[in-house]
Amino acid sequence: MNKYIAAFDGLKFSGSTNDYAIYLSTSEGAYLTGVFLDDKTYTSYKIYDLILEDGLSEQKVSRLKHEDQLARKNASTTFEDSCQKAGLNFSIHHDEHIAIQELLNETIYADLLIINNNENFVHHEEKYPSRFIKDLLSNTQCPVLLTPEKYYDIKKIIFLFDGEANSVYALKMFNYLFPSFRNLPIEVLLVKTLGSDDHFPQNRLVKEFIRRHYENVSYTVLKGIPEVEIIDHLQKEKLNFVSILGAYRRTMLSKWFKSSMADALVKNFDMPVFIAHNK
């Protein structure tokens, strides 16, 4: 039995992360842990919200703290109720120290992390990827599924292949974690430079490997700039899909996961993104 963890900001609870976590854990018979990052240094209010014309209001401080506690409790209860309704084996962790440190430690003991692509644990909005997501993807100890704002059933797999071992590793992890998806259609998508041939790198090995796990496979070779060609191609896709990427390493970025590529996928498609890297 695999262990999935779903990370939540209890002050801005992600319903889609909750829905994806329940759906995937049920489909794969996984154990699910809800990780609520109740960082004591992070609140829903700013310091100047506490100041009145006549100075600091202790009554207002108490009220705002109580509202935060209530929001976090309600978020945890929502997750718990969802798990019980689905009949899942689950647990709940309330981590009260620095959010990124707590979550990275949790990933050491997990097979998969499920988290909203917009989590940031700050008061202000940040462009994707936020500093929190960058740090998370650079240092995670397990694969990550970034969830969009809305939940959609997954009907197709898009594997972004760049000819490197890191991207194949991501597909391996996806396959091991989601065996129930092996009956879905999978498209292997490669972008090559203009003027190059249409052959896949390691063509025989790639196709031999993928055929062992998936039956409904198609192969697409595009020519041009990956960030442009991939987005243009996927905008024509009619099925709800999950995309698979080789991702951040500690020392370098996979050429498939430059900031522009990740930003484009998240901005243009309200679909989940699966990321794994081989350290």
Structure description:
There is one protein chain. By secondary structure, the chain is α/β, with parallel strands linked by helices. It has two domains: about 5-145, HUPs (Rossmann fold, 3-Layer(aba) Sandwich), CATH 3.40.50.620; about 155-275, HUPs (Rossmann fold, 3-Layer(aba) Sandwich), CATH 3.40.50.620. Helices cover about 35% and strands about 20% of the residues. It has eight helices and twelve strands. It has a ten-stranded mixed β-sheet, sandwiched between helices. Strand 9, helix 6 (about 205-210) and strand 10 (about 215-225) form a beta-alpha-beta unit. The longest helix is centred in the first third of the chain and has 29 residues, at about 60-85. The protein is globular. The two termini are about 25 Å apart. The model is unreliable at about 250-255 (pLDDT under 50).
Helix content: 25-40%
User: Main sheet?
Assistant: 10 strands, mixed
Number of helices: 8
Kindly name the structural category: alpha/beta
Strand order of the largest sheet: 5-2-1-6-7-12-11-8-9-10
Number of domains: 2
Number of strands: 12
Report the sheet-strand fraction: 15-25%
CATH class of the largest domain: Alpha Beta
CATH topology of the largest domain: Rossmann fold
Q: Rg from C-alpha positions? A: 20 Å
Please give the CATH architecture of the largest domain.
Answer: 3-Layer(aba) Sandwich
> Considering the protein shown, what is the CATH homologous superfamily of the largest domain?
HUPs
Unreliably modeled segments: 248-257
Terminal Cα separation, in Å?
A: 24 Å
| Overall pLDDT score | 88
Helix-strand topology string: EHEEEHEHEHEEHEHEHEHE
- Overall, the morphology is globular
